[in-house]
Protein: PABS domain-containing protein
Organism: Ancylostoma ceylanicum
Amino acid sequence: MDTTKWKLDKTTVRLTYARTMISGVFFSGAVELDSPKEHKILIIGLGGGIINNYLSSMPNQKLDVTVVDIDPVMKEVATKWYDFKPSPLHRIVIEDGLVFVNQASDKGLKYDAILLDLCINKKVALMCPIEGFLTEEAISNLAFITADTGLLLFNSISTELSPLTSCAHG
């Protein structure tokens, strides 16, 4: 049985964290629901592509979705198993997320919503977001490329009660 031929329902999201990130985009007011206005969304960290697939397939929405991931294998996974289809309003960029954010800042780009969803694949105090995005420069650049009424939303996974304190001390 070739499961790559199964039709994928992009309008169903079963992962709680993914549903939370998607709903946050709209509940925050950064992106208007059922709006004819084009909204720019940046997702850093592709995974299987569940979040971007959902956002790019929403009816009555004009969402310009850019996804950045450092690993080209993730794009292959998204294409083969999660039915990623590039379009003028939906793209995957294979690049280091920090480099992309720095370049976007240099170019003066703005996004209505930025979803930071990248983790380190080992057990450390703070697995998400990765350490590189916790520097002053990264935070400053993320703030700069977030539109005035925009949203920066990040996935946070911790193995300790107080991961930021642990990271700050070592």
About this structure: The longest strand covers residues 146-154. The chain has a mean pLDDT of 86. The chain has one domain: 11-168.
